[in-house]
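Q: I'm building a small set of examples for a reading group on sequence design. Run inverse folding on the following structure and report the sequence directly after it, with nothing in between.
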């Protein structure tokens, strides 16, 4: 799967996710980053599988890709599953590859507050923080945990004032910004539960 086009000098937000299923909260995150960081576009990276989540609980990649494409059908949103095509499982691998392949593109990693709260469990998280600027979008119930997290404390000195968010893509990593409100309370877990899937892609057996 080819990478989306990115002419030299472009500012691209990288928004990785399981999107199992995608929802309006995801669109809120992508749009918030696009506007507040003045990005040229957002690439939605539909992961083959979050290494920290149990295998088997995630819908097949083609299904998630199709659903994300329907949700993010906007001019400056590009949806790709290129990580699976390259056999990338960890975000560090993805970022290392992209900054090497596209040295003239400015990349920013985008994630929600819940992801920052557990970022110190990601493979080579300090190397990720040293590779690209990071934008964190607040999420209901996770703001405090995110800002008190090991990763936030480790890089406390590298935190950019929110009023300067638009300068984030031009700053040398490590640098990050926490973007407060408005908030969106949608969640894939809640949607799966509402659809009767109970958080698992495997339907219960007879009599369950
Ligand atoms: N409502 C939301 N507000 C802010 N960030 C969000 C929101 N929903 C998801 N995110 C962020 O989007 C990225 C992808 O999230 P993901 O696909 O895991 O959705 P989720 O709703 O968190 O799913 P699940 O409930 O299965 O964990 C993550 O960085 C997550 O922090
Ligand atoms: O690289 C890691 O160790 C790692 C650990 C957890 C999550 N991630 C990435 O974080 C992004 C968000 O994942 P998720 O499941 O919260 O939507 C997605 O791109 C994952 O590949 C990456």
């Amino acid at each position: 799967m080819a990478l989306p086009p990115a002419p030299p000098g472009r500012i691209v937000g990288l928004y990785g996710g399981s999107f199992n299923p995608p929802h309006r909260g995801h669109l809120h995150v992508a749009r918030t980053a696009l506007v507040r960081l003045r990005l040229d576009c957002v690439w939605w990276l539909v992961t083959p599988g979050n290494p920290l989540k149990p295998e088997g609980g995630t819908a097949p990649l083609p299904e998630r890709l199709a659903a994300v494409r329907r949700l993010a059908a906007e001019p400056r949103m590009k949806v790709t599953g290129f990580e699976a095509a390259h056999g990338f499982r960890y975000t560090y691998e993805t970022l290392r590859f992209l900054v090497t392949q596209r040295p003239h593109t400015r990349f920013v990693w985008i994630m929600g507050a819940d992801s920052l709260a557990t970022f110190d469990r990601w493979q080579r998280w300090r190397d990720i923080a040293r590779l690209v600027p990071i934008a964190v979008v607040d999420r209901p119930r996770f703001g405090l945990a995110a800002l008190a997290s090991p990763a936030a404390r480790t890089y406390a000195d590298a935190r950019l004032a929110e009023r300067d968010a638009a300068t984030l893509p031009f700053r040398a990593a490590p640098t990050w910004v926490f973007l407060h409100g408005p908030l969106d309370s949608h969640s894939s877990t809640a949607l799966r539960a509402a659809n009767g899937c109970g958080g698992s892609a495997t339907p219960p057996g007879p009599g369950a």
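Residues 24-36 form the longest helix (13 residues).
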